[in-house]
Amino acid sequence: MGLLDIFGKKDVGEELVKKVPYSMRLKFHPYRLNANKMESVMLILELKNLKEEVLLTSLVIELPKNLGFDQTALSTAREIRLGEMKPGEEKEVKIEIWGNPRTDAGDYTIKVTAICHYRNYGYLLNAEKKEVVLRAV
Predict the structure, then answer these.
(1) Which end of the chain is less congested by CB atoms within 10 angstroms, N or C?
(2) What CA–CA distance (Å, rounded) separates 78 from 81?
(3) From the CB of residue 130, how many other CB atoms can be counted at a distance below 10 Å?
(4) First-to-last CA distance in the chain?
(5) Which contiguous run of DSSP H or E holds residue 3?
(6) pLDDT tens digits, one per residue of 85-120
């Protein structure tokens, strides 16, 4: 019998770590990028809270070096803080991804991580990672 059992509290941290906290869908509009041109595509990310608790949520998107979040392609990583998501709540985030004259034809892997926090954004509880491939033609 633990100290928390005496006061009638349960440790929900272990339950949150066991299962995947989010359902994540990724898609592009348009579905491919023109190579060696200053054009962009929209990454549409749909995130749903699968837990029965309110989750403090953030997203981290990592791009390869030939793509960027702006026209110069200098910024290749971005954190987006979504705030608290209620149980069953869905959020849609749209992120513009730019190609440039250095973006050759081929496949580019984009990594997206949905992170569940506790207390504040400095404490990580659980995360789900997904990769999606963007084709440049």
Answers:
(1) N
(2) 10
(3) 14
(4) 62
(5) helix 3-6
(6) 999 999 999 999 999 999 999 999 999 999 999 889
